[in-house]
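CHAIN AND CONFORMATION:

***
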Amino acid sequence: MLNKLLKTILMKLTKEQILGIARHALTFVGGILIMKGLVDEATATEIIGGLITLAGTIWSVIDKNKA
């Protein structure tokens, strides 16, 4: 039931909306890692930026292959 609801919600979101949500979630996790002293701010920023770029690139390739 929950899986079906999440799938319905995700199908209505645009690529930009999903990547924005992912960026905020990663920023939140990065803040926790910084607070615990596991990474510094610059490292967290680089990792988050890299992951969002990778996700956008993969999404773009998959989207273009569907067409």
